[in-house]
């Protein structure tokens, strides 16, 4: 009886392992990265967000139509100047490759703008942008942290709004362009 029980357990574990091998529980598709080499070293990767179709949601005081049904932005006075947005992000081939969140807040000392880009099967990037726009309408900031393949990287990211001038009826209003420059962080002994 005990031998039958042990053989049953072993066969059950083997069958479960074979089933997981044949039909993986998570099979994250990884879209091929479109990365170019920067002239002064490092790598450059571009993303974009077609507006308004790639906006998943926006949470801010006074924004009622942009939250999913049943959700309400808190009426807390401390959140009056906070805006949270969630987007689908696309690569240069216009393929959706992940999600991004943009948080902005304003207080008496200035404005804060943070982006988190999550690329499944690759990792996440956290970037803090300077609030003032540079010439040409760019905002630029530093890569603060990353996970998985982005963990050992530092670098910069720029954000820019590009309006659509095509005049097509079904075209987006414009797009947010995000350009990242990755540089491997130097190891300190």
Describe this structure in words.
The chain is mostly beta strands and 189 residues long. It has one domain (30-184): Beta Barrel (AOC barrel-like). It has one helix at 2-22; strands at residues 35-37, 43-51, 55-60, 82-90, 96-107, 110-119, 123-129, 139-146, 153-163, 174-184. The chain has a ten-stranded antiparallel beta sheet with strand order 1-2-10-9-8-7-6-5-4-3, with no helix packed on it. Strand 8 (139-146) and strand 9 form a beta hairpin.
How would you summarize this macromolecular structure in one to three sentences?
This protein has 189 residues and is mainly beta. The chain has a single domain, classed as AOC barrel-like. Helix content is 11%, strand content 46%.
Write the layout of secondary structure elements.
Elements: H1 2-22, E1 35-37, E2 43-51, E3 55-60, E4 82-90, E5 96-107, E6 110-119, E7 123-129, E8 139-146, E9 153-163, E10 174-184
Antiparallel strand pairs: 1-2, 2-10, 3-4, 4-5, 5-6, 6-7, 7-8, 8-9, 9-10
Largest sheet: spatial strand order:
1-2-10-9-8-7-6-5-4-3
Strand runs, count: 10
Number of folding domains? 1
Distance between the termini: 61 Å
Mean pLDDT score: 81
Strand content: over 45%
Helix content: 10-25%
List the secondary-structure elements in sequence, H or E: HEEEEEEEEEE
Can you name the CATH architecture?
Beta Barrel
Main sheet, how many strands, which sense, barrel? 10 strands, antiparallel
Counting helices, strands and paired strands, the structural category is mainly beta
